[in-house]
Amino acid sequence: MKKKYDLVVVGGGVLGTFHAYAAMDLGLKVALIEKNNAPQGATVRNFGQVVPSGMDSKWQAYGRESLRIYKEIQSKFDISVRQQGSVYLASNEEEVQLLEELAAINKQNDYSSQLLTKSQCLDKYDGLRSDYVKGGLFFPEEVIVEPRVMINKLHAYMKGEGLDLFFNKKITQCEPLADEVLLITAMGETFKAAKVMICNGSDFETLYPKTFQESDLVVSKLQMMSTKPQQNYRLQGSVLTGLSIRRYEAFEECASYKAIKAKESPDSLEKKWGVHILFKQACDGSVILGDSHEYASAKEKDLLGFDLNMDIDNFIIEESKKIMDLPNYDIQHRWFGMYSQCKTTDIYQKNMDDNIHIVTGIGGKGMTGSAGFSKENITKLYNKEECTL
């Protein structure tokens, strides 16, 4: 290929795509290369919620910028973004206390939230069980997306804006030259770029196997499922529950969090399988239920297997029934996603050369945090004025 790009991004998932988007926003000539005919990994196998509310203060800033970017794109091109808000539902007084503390933190951070009484929760969320909910915290700015739709529509939008997008091209060599980087595909095709960003763990492993083996990346396997369409039933936005309150990073900043966590049984099934219960209604009327977390080091990810653990699925369904009376709990689809993340840092970054940069391991923060993080990362990479998130 004769064209030389300012930036080639390897990996067409949400993290790579938003790095390409941020570079295009700076006026750079960008190519995005995806090894499959469409993204197949965590980007299309997640819950589809954009919830800065669940993140610590650093990542909430990225998530809030992501919200702005999602809404800006949606105003120009339909990528399936729906602003319906997110709610955390407390099941006991300890969880209510955490919600009250988080509401105070978000007020300090100037992030809009609203404490809901039990009756307000019951009025707002059809089917919510009175014997479960004690109160809620609602975040009106947050959005949901259809993951398998969003990334493909985002690619279509960016192509219209000038992105060169290549599918079914597996990069097997990445060679630094005097003033550029040469990329070679498995079929012998070549790409040249001033800089390269590698945003996919699989591509990272192929190109730099020793560095990958030495990394602190771990893989989390998450099981999710969707019901059959719910007739004459509407559930607004993301619904996160008591187990989410006890798991999400944002709550770790609450004063009571450590004492409350210390009381939990280490032998519970939700601890064993890393389960917290989430609900979201898809465009076809089905309700997505999840999810679980099983871990292995990235180099031993095959130990997690390719089967679904039906004990986990059945546990999620039974716990969900204690929270929400849906018209039906007939399951039409089941799947799992594999997300890479770091043991010691919140995202994996390594420079293999002045012009070759690896960014991966964003974990479950990808759908929420990628757009905002990518904007800052690209801004720093090109020494532009640092953006204020």
TrEMBL record:
- Database matches in Pfam families: DAO (PF01266)
SUPFAM superfamilies recorded for this chain? FAD/NAD(P)-binding domain
List the residue ranges forming a coiled coil, or say none: none
Residue limits of the FAD dependent oxidoreductase domain? 6-375
- Give the superkingdom in one word: Bacteria
Cross-referenced InterPro entries, in alphabetical order?
Answer: FAD-dep_OxRdtase, FAD-dependent_OxRdtase_HpnW, FAD/NAD-bd_sf, G3P_Oxidase/Oxidoreductase
Which named protein is this?
FAD dependent oxidoreductase TIGR03364
User: Organism, per UniProt?
Assistant: Arenibacter nanhaiticus
